[in-house]
Design goal:
By secondary structure, the protein is of the alpha+beta class. The protein has helices at 4-18, 45-53, 99-134, 141-151, 173-184, 208-224, 243-256, 266-276, 280-291, 296-307, 312-319, 323-337, 344-362; strands at 22-25, 31-34, 57-59, 72-79, 82-90, 159-168, 189-195, 198-204, 228-233, 263-265. The strands form two sheets. Strands 2-1-5-4-3 form a five-stranded antiparallel beta sheet, with helices on both faces. Strands 7-8-6-9-10 form a five-stranded mixed beta sheet, sandwiched between helices. A hairpin with a 2-residue loop joins strand 4 (72-79) and strand 5 (82-90).
Length: 363
């Protein structure tokens, strides 16, 4: 933990406040950080004595004969009950008072903070590696198992994938991930960014009702943090080999669902998604045969009719038109297409053709 970077930070923070030179020595007694750069790399005999005894060592002006030392106080730096180095403060030991202990405490606190941050960083990198592997066509399950083992995560079925597309936020990546992990539960899944504005959550061991509760909690959290977002979640699956497809299902859900919807499951658009995966020439031919030159007015009539479960009055109210006007429009659609949207079989054909018509409009 006592590397060059943290040692330099300690020297910079403490020297400025004390108006004294501060030295950091490693476990071999070598000075690795100091404001007096000419001393870097030199041996400090006083530090070696501290390393051997584990106790604070003061050096007076009379003891300057000790190799590489100057008057001052040298204290052991302890981390997780082990001495990992020595901090030396140059000056008259009689004038130090409690300064040495305060600097030692500050130093050890900085090292603990650095350790916590480094632990979080490697854990997050490991999670990102696992996600990256899971989304490959041919993932390395050896790497995945190794990563899960390092994280001490027991990834068990059933699995669900949740994708969060973010359009606006003020919270940092690290803070957002931390809050999402607290919401999901460390034992229930992995959270990672896969690009700047897209998060993926892989849950394990949660049944359908539990998943719904977790999604509600995630939704509430994002709202509270003033994040602009949309969430798509997959069907449950039972093999990690199916993770890539579950992610692709979420991806297409975000693409083809109504953008006003903030939370949507793949199950809601699964039938529509099939159309988006069929050859364009085939689907376009079908759509044109059924709908002909459909205009926006007739398209909105059909959309409202289907969205309101074939209820004429509700559909008319949604479009702010009179019931008779809406019925007139339906009759015009029947005349032009030969399909009656009030009949199940005809409604199904028209709905599929309408999905394709919408797909063409997006491209």
């Amino acid at each position: 933990m006592l590397n060059q970077k943290i040692a330099n930070s300690i020297v910079e923070e403490t020297s400025i406040r004390l108006h004294r030179n501060v030295n950091i020595m490693n476990t071999e007694g070598i000075i690795i950080a100091t404001r007096d750069t000419s001393r870097i790399g030199s041996f400090h005999e006083g530090a070696l004595e501290v390393l051997k005894s584990g106790e604070t060592r003061t050096i007076s002006a009379k003891q300057e004969s000790l190799g590489g030392t100057q008057p001052g106080v040298n204290l052991p730096i302890v981390f997780q009950e082990k001495i990992i180095g020595v901090i030396g403060i140059t000056g008259d030991p009689a004038e130090m008072g409690d300064v040495g202990e305060l600097v030692k405490m500050t130093t050890e606190l900085m090292i603990r903070q650095e350790f916590v941050v480094s632990q979080m960083e490697w854990k997050q990198r490991t999670k990102e590696m696992i996600m990256e592997q899971l989304m490959k066509k041919e993932p390395s399950f050896t790497d995945i198992d190794r990563g899960l083992s390092l994280l001490r995560v027991d990834f068990k079925q059933p699995f669900t994938t949740m994708v969060i597309q973010i359009t606006e936020r003020s919270i940092t990546n690290q803070k957002l991930i931390q809050k999402l992990e607290e919401t999901i539960g460390d034992e229930n899944g992995i959270v990672a960014f896969i690009n700047v504005n897209r998060l993926i959550i892989a849950t394990s061991g949660l049944e359908e009702e539990e998943i719904k509760r977790k999604i509600e909690s995630v939704y509430a959290l994002l709202k509270k943090q003033n994040v602009a977002f949309r969430i798509a979640y997959s069907l449950p699956f039972y093999k990690l080999e199916e993770f890539r497809q579950a992610y692709l299902d979420c991806d297409i859900t975000l693409k083809i669902s109504e953008h006003e919807k903030e939370v949507i499951s793949f199950a809601e658009i699964e039938a529509k998604a099939l159309i988006y995966q069929v050859d364009d020439d085939i689907t376009e031919r079908f759509s044109y045969r059924v709908l002909g030159n459909l205009d926006e007015n007739k398209a909105s009539t059909l959309k409202a009719f289907f969205a309101n479960d074939l209820n004429i009055q509700k559909a008319a109210d949604e479009l702010y038109v009179h019931r008779n006007t809406f019925i007139y429009r339906l009759h015009k659609i029947i005349e032009e297409t030969g399909y009656d949207p009030r009949k199940f079989q005809d409604a199904l054909i028209l709905q599929v053709a309408l999905w394709i018509w919408g797909k063409e409009g997006e491209s």
